[in-house]
């Protein structure tokens, strides 16, 4: 069985880097844990770092967090469906919302459960995912600010998550103005402007984050140390907190070009032939992992001479060239991962998870 390994020391370095950064700026933050898919082992290690606030888009994952540590503040980070309101209120202390009717249902459920539920109102800033249009925000707030068992603790936004619209000072400054307008009109304090995600961290590093942005929701940069604007590892952070290790189950010298009439494979692809490779061979290894677990485009071989050739549902084929390292069946190859690769592997029941 292939294994997805979490390097605890590297995760800790990344966490401490971000904690110091946010402490210096007096910014609150929570960790987005949806990448971990509710894995008990990895969630516990996350909590052990001292994280006080965890965000997720799956209620079952937040339920696991509460089972591990009731004191961690849990945040549900997508609009909740009607049928899941009860469970969401039970396991999430805070939720991100953009629909009046949904918040009214949350209020009713919070009254029934005798709980105070906190709300961050999501504001549309151009990426066209969830969010209330700015011109409708005052009326929206007026419709919910007196609902029982509801406390509005912030205005928030998402950028880059759907259409790739990047955060900028021009995109974020209006949120502070909306906050001031609402506070003056209704005499209510809104503590947070939750406009920060991993893609917003470069604005903070370059001292361009608008004043008033005081809450971040961070996932990818914690796990991959990445500057999502420059697409490079941030100095002082690690990009390989996660590593995939997969066993070689066949290793033979074979032709570089398939032999026979070519049709469409189960993935709907037809192989393209490089005629210059006819008659040439290389050592090809088959690994015990496949498309059922991860898309190969999200895997980065640790060794530069290894080339990923393709995959079927349960097997990955790689080109070892001349096999200079004299690898053998039963040995393993290691891969760094892109975010979507780690997410797929975490969601696979066929991949073992372990902590280094």
Automatic annotation (TrEMBL):
<dbReference type="InterPro" id="IPR029066">
    <property type="entry name" value="PLP-binding_barrel"/>
</dbReference>
<keyword id="KW-0413">Isomerase</keyword>
<dbReference type="GO" id="GO:0008784">
    <property type="term" value="F:alanine racemase activity"/>
</dbReference>
<dbReference type="GO" id="GO:0005829">
    <property type="term" value="C:cytosol"/>
</dbReference>
<dbReference type="InterPro" id="IPR001608">
    <property type="entry name" value="Ala_racemase_N"/>
</dbReference>
<dbReference type="GO" id="GO:0030170">
    <property type="term" value="F:pyridoxal phosphate binding"/>
</dbReference>
<dbReference type="Pfam" id="PF01168">
    <property type="entry name" value="Ala_racemase_N"/>
</dbReference>
<protein>
    <submittedName>
        <fullName>Predicted amino acid racemase</fullName>
    </submittedName>
</protein>
<keyword id="KW-0663">Pyridoxal phosphate</keyword>
<feature type="domain" description="Alanine racemase N-terminal">
    <location>
        <begin position="7"/>
        <end position="224"/>
    </location>
</feature>
<dbReference type="InterPro" id="IPR000821">
    <property type="entry name" value="Ala_racemase"/>
</dbReference>
């Amino acid at each position: 069985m292939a294994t997805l390994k979490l390097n605890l020391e590297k995760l800790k370095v990344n966490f401490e880097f971000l904690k110091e950064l946010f402490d210096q700026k007096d910014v609150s933050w929570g960790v987005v844990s949806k990448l971990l898919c509710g894995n008990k082992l990895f969630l516990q290690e996350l909590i052990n770092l001292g994280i006080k606030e965890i965000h997720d888009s799956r209620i079952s994952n937040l339920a696991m967090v509460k089972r591990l540590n009731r004191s961690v503040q849990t945040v549900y980070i997508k609009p909740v469906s009607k049928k899941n309101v009860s469970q969401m209120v039970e396991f999430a202390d805070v939720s991100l919302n953009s629909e009046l009717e949904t918040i009214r249902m949350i209020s009713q459920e919070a009254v029934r459960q005798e709980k105070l539920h906190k709300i961050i109102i999501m504001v549309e800033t151009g990426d066209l995912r969830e969010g209330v249009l700015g011109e409708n925000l005052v009326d929206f707030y007026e419709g919910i600010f007196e609902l029982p068992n509801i406390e509005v603790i912030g205005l928030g936004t998402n950028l880059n998550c759907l259409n790739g619209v990047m955060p900028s000072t021009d995109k974020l400054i209006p949120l502070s103005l909306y906050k001031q307008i609402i506070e003056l009109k209704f005499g209510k304090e809104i503590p947070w402007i939750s406009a920060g995600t991993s893609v917003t961290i470069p604005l903070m590093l370059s001292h361009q984050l608008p004043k008033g942005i005081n809450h971040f929701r961070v996932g990818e940069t914690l796990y991959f140390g990445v500057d999502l604007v420059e697409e490079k590892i941030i100095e002082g952070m690690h990009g390989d907190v996660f590593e995939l290790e997969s066993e070689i189950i066949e290793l033979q010298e074979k032709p570089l070009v398939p032999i026979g009439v070519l049709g469409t494979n189960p993935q709907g692809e037809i192989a393209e032939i490089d005629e210059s490779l006819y008659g040439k061979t290389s050592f090809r290894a088959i690994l015990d992992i496949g498309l059922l677990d991860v898309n190969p485009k999200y895997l980065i071989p640790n060794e530069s001479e290894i080339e990923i050739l393709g995959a079927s549902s349960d097997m990955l084929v790689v080109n070892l060239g001349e096999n200079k390292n004299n690898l053998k069946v039963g040995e393993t190859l290691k891969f760094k991962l892109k975010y979507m690769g780690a997410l797929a592997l975490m969601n696979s029941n066929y991949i073992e998870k372990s902590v280094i």
